């Protein structure tokens, strides 16, 4: 049914008084226009407001719009408001039998929404109810309790069982400290920076700083700055290098000098086990900082790339050197003395030569 006909029917049903002669004439004219529409033509629906943009209205459509506007103007104000409310709701028929229930549910939902908004505003924009926060933070409390109980039992069993053995890696992480420091990308190449990295690896922090102080390389100052930064971080954040005192046979409150041999065969004396040294040092290739053109012969051009490199240092305490020395000595003791000919039974004996 066309929109104008539906509008006129609803207007006629809503009007309590008889229409005026002009309104009746407009209705008859509109009915004649709508009835005279051929039935064999397809009815085109208007998809959107831009569907008929730019098209000219036909004479029949213009006349229908004029009649509809005239009818709406002559309706009573009360009838016009009632018609507008029904059209705004999307229906023209009368209210259903469930209108009271629907209105009550809408009222309850609006009241609940207002209460939730008030609670959220009072809590700073969030619902800070304990139950709500518990559901968000701990969605499965039973599984969490079971997992915590399992971890506690495992820790107690390992700590109290005389036959349990702590893993080597766990023992090292518990008793020794370390710090990894990585520098930002420096304006140099890997080929140049790797020599300075090898120069400081295995040395104490003080020796490495002395090496970088008297080095003629351009990046020596940057590496010295990174070593100092790593040293300060290790002291402040990890509590390394605080000069612990070891009590021994030589007296109370005095450090015991321990002679050890490093991995590369160098003999050193350790007075303070907490003294910092550079356990590892390596470089990493970074992104290209830019490009530069280099003119060549015969009108050609080379592209020179500007590299960037970073250096990383791993600081540890000299108690790690003591542990590594003891592990090497224990391994050597387990292997026993070296012999040229192993002491094992001779097999595959023949009385004749095999050639």
Automatic annotation (TrEMBL):
Keyword Endoplasmic reticulum included in the entry's annotation: no
Keywords tagged on the record: Ribonucleoprotein, Ribosomal protein
A UniProt-annotated Pfam family: Ribosomal_L22
Example GO BP: translation
Segments for region (Disordered): 1-21, 98-123
Signal peptide extent: none
Gene3D superfamilies in the record: Ribosomal protein L22/L17
UniProt GO MF annotations: structural constituent of ribosome
GO cellular component: large ribosomal subunit
InterPro entries hit by this protein: Ribosomal_uL22, Ribosomal_uL22_bac/org-type, Ribosomal_uL22_sf
Family: Belongs to the universal ribosomal protein uL22 family.
The name this protein goes by in its record: Ribosomal protein L22
């Amino acid at each position: 049914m066309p929109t104008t006909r539906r509008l006129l029917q609803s207007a006629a049903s809503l009007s309590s008084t008889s229409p005026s002669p002009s309104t009746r004439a407009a209705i008859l004219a509109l009915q004649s226009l709508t009835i005279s529409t051929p039935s064999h033509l397809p009815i085109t629906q208007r998809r959107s407001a831009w569907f008929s943009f730019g098209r000219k209205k036909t004479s029949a459509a213009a006349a229908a719009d004029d009649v509809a506007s005239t009818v709406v103007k002559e309706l009573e104000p009360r009838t016009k408001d009632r018609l507008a409310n029904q059209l705004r709701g999307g229906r023209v028929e009368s209210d259903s039998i469930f209108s009271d229930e629907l209105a009550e549910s809408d009222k309850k939902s609006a009241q609940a929404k207002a209460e939730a908004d008030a609670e959220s505003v009072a809590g700073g924009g969030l619902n800070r109810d304990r139950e709500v926060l518990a559901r968000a933070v701990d969605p499965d409390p039973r599984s969490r309790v079971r997992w915590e109980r399992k971890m506690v039992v495992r820790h107690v069993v390992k700590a109290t069982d005389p036959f349990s053995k702590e893993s080597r890696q766990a023992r090292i992480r518990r008793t020794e400290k370390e710090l990894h420091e990585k520098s930002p990308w420096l304006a140099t190449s890997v080929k140049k920076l790797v020599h300075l990295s090898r120069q400081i690896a295995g040395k104490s922090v003080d020796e490495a700083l002395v090496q970088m102080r008297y080095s003629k390389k351009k990046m020596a100052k940057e590496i010295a700055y990174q070593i100092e930064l790593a040293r300060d971080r290790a002291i402040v954040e990890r509590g390394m290098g605080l000069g612990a005192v070891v009590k021994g046979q030589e007296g109370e409150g005095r450090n015991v000098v321990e002679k050890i041999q490093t991995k590369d065969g160098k003999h050193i004396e350790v007075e303070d086990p907490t003294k910092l040294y550079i356990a590892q040092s390596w470089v990493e290739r970074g992104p290209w900082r830019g490009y530069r053109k280099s003119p060549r012969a015969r009108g050609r051009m080379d592209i020179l790339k500007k590299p960037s490199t970073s250096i990383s240092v791993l600081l540890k305490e000299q108690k790690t050197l003591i542990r590594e020395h003891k592990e090497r000595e224990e391994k050597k003791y387990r292997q026993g003395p070296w012999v040229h000919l192993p002491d094992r039974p001779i097999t595959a004996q023949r009385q004749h030569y095999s050639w």
